Fold this protein.
Amino acid sequence: MVINIPDQALVSAKISSEDLLLDFAVYLYEKQILSIGQARKIVDLDLISFQKELAKRDVFIHFGIEDLEKDLVNLETL
């Protein structure tokens, strides 16, 4: 899918296309529309770099009960 945004709109908004794409990926992650892995792929960032971008924007990493239970099982196998 391609979304065309006129360059003039980006200039007026004082945002680069890369920053807009990053903001979009962060938004989709924050709203729990995409997983962290899916969102980071939109902007072609490794996991740690994307997590740093989330932190800059005060977006918390989603970590639920299921994630905790999986981590506990993994710890028990060590």
Residues 50 and 56 are 10 Å apart (CA to CA).
